[in-house]
Design brief:
This protein is mainly α. 69% of the residues lie in helices and 2% in strands. It is built from 18 helices and two strands. Strands 1-2 form a two-stranded antiparallel ribbon. The protein is globular and about 60 Å long. The two termini are 39 Å apart.
């Protein structure tokens, strides 16, 4: 007897309940942190272009640390190499969670966001190289327009008071997670100085010890904090950018809870979840804004802004972020849907995907870091930073126009996704299902498991 195949779930349909909760928790903190980041960037720009500019530069360039350990750094470098490590540690945990229990755990679910993210990195880099080649510029900054700043993007959505559906937010979050992985790989491979094998060996030993402690379910921050700091310091002195240590530790931490049995106690939360719960507010609300405060203070005079559009390196960054990101992500998503015969959620339109692609052109935090790593000439670095700021502003404005036009649709979908009339903490849509099977959650078993676990 012929049994017709089940229809494929649509792109950007209702998320499984566990994934919906995880995304909601992550984005809530990132949104608040994004607003703080936005405020820090504004303060940096105002301060750096005010009569108190010398005070800003003196504070930014003030050195302190432990010279005997090779850690005598400026305030700006402490924020970039030190505090930003917390951002990448949280990103590493996020990536591990996505690989183990999230959207990236199976090839079928990982295909779309990974292809879109990779295309959203390759196309901007290629457009930068094309622009600098045509203009006789330097190719060093090809990595600058590759990354998406999820916190800044979410801050834009918060300012707009939009109600973007959870599936589109999850897509943006997954894009940013894959972007962060790409960024850290680029940093580790292309932006390393002369290597100190002994120091790198020591960092590897510290990471292996953390892995062993995780394997044997050893708890206690007093084990992990000193080992983490040692891995970071040794990585820095080994010639590899210190933020790589943060991602490595994040990938080592367990993100799957022990359910009990085999002599192990059941866990309410995994080590990765507990660490993320503690560090995400610090990363989003302190580390990234402080980095922005000392990285975004660039001149915004008429001549400086003019160079963004006339010099090949900043122009390449601008086009890479605003045009390259949009074309790369949208084209990859459309082609992936077309060749897999998937269909878009009937409640959405391709204009919604275009808005997300444009929003991904906000490349603030990691793009600023890449600009500092790619160029040694302070004048060029200032131009690149100005280009990142202008590009992020343009992407935000265009995305705002696109999102506001569809906000009525988003509001209706958001209300449907969050309605909980019986007050049991589970949105009604996950209990009653949908009349149209094609727009149900793509993993019904996971929804049922989430409901049973909640109860």
């Amino acid at each position: 007897m012929y049994v017709p195949p089940r229809p494929r779930p649509p792109l950007f349909g209702i998320l499984p309940l566990p994934e919906h909760r995880a995304v909601t928790r992550a984005l809530r903190t990132e949104t608040v942190g994004g607003l703080v980041l936005l405020a820090a960037a504004v303060v940096a720009l105002v301060w750096a272009n005010s009569p108190a500019r010398e005070a800003y530069e003196s504070l930014r360039d003030f050195h302190f640390g432990i010279p005997s350990l090779g850690l005598d750094l400026s305030v700006q470098h402490w924020t970039a190499d030190g505090l930003l490590t917390l951002f990448f540690l949280v990103a590493g945990i996020e990536l591990k969670r996505e690989l183990v229990v999230g959207e990236l755990r199976t090839p079928a679910t990982a295909l779309l966001p990974v292809v879109a993210a990779v295309s959203g990195m390759v196309v901007p880099a290629a457009l930068y190289l094309l622009t600098t080649s045509a203009g006789g510029g330097r190719p060093d900054g090809w990595a600058v327009p590759m990354a998406t700043d999820i916190a800044f993007a979410l801050a834009v959505l918060a300012v707009l008071s939009t109600h973007l559906p959870a599936a589109l937010r999850a897509f943006l979050l997954t894009l940013a997670v894959v972007d962060d992985l790409g960024a850290i790989l680029v940093i580790a491979v292309f932006f390393t100085s002369s290597l100190d094998i002994v120091a790198l060996g020591g960092a590897l030993v510290a990471l292996v010890v953390i892995h062993v402690l995780q394997r044997f379910r050893v708890t206690g921050w007093w084990w992990y904090v000193p080992l983490g700091v040692a891995a970071w310091a040794l990585m820095y002195n080994g010639g590899v950018h210190a933020t790589v240590a943060g991602v490595a530790i994040g990938l080592i931490l367990r993100t799957r809870r022990d359910e009990g049995g085999d002599g192990r106690a059941a866990e309410a939360a995994s080590p990765g979840e507990r660490t993320e719960h503690v560090l995400r507010p610090v990363s989003a609300g302190v580390a990234v804004p402080l980095f922005a405060l000392f990285a975004a203070g660039v001149s915004i005079s008429g001549s400086a802004l003019g160079e963004v559009f006339t010099r090949p390196e900043p122009l390449g960054v601008l086009l890479g972020l605003v045009v390259g990101k949009t074309v790369g992500i949208f084209a990859a998503t459309y082609l992936a849907a077309r060749f897999t015969r998937a269909r878009l959620n009937p409640d959405l339109a391709w204009a919604d995907v275009l808005a997300i692609a444009v929003l991904a052109g906000i490349g603030f935090t990691v793009a600023l870091l890449m600009g500092e790593l790619a160029f040694a000439d302070p004048e060029v670095v200032e131009q690149i930073k100005a280009a990142v700021l202008v590009a992020s502003l343009l992407a935000a404005v265009v995305a705002a126009v696109l999102v506001r036009q569809r906000n009525g649709v988003y509001r209706r979908l958001w209300e449907e996704e969050t309605r909980d009339e019986d007050g049991d903490g589970i949105p009604d849509i996950y209990q009653r299902g949908r009349a149209d099977e094609s727009v149900r959650a793509p993993a019904g078993e996971e929804v049922a498991d989430g409901l049973r676990g909640h109860r």
